[in-house]
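Exam revision sheet. Question 4 asks you to relate a sequence to its structure. Input first:
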Amino acid sequence: MKKTRQNKNLELRSDSIGTEKALDRMSAVESEDALLAVARPKKERRRPLRRILLALATQYVIIATIVGLSVAAALHYLVTPQIVARFEAIEAAFKRLPPR
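Answer key, structure tokens:
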């Protein structure tokens, strides 16, 4: 296995100038990001009242639907036969009338 030698002598080289410029640019970008993060409005926390009102409205709609269907069913089974019987009585009365 071939051993590699590490350079312990760290000198400024020509590429270090480019590195310094890049580091300067990165720090400028990071500071801009920090400014943007500070400038952003804080997220509003969700309001529990909105959730409660939505739940109550949903329950109201469900209950109103159930009550409406119950009333419609009661009318259909209790009132409709009485109305039909009255119309049949009126029809029978018209049939007994003498023709004109």
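Marking note for examiners. The mean pLDDT is 78.
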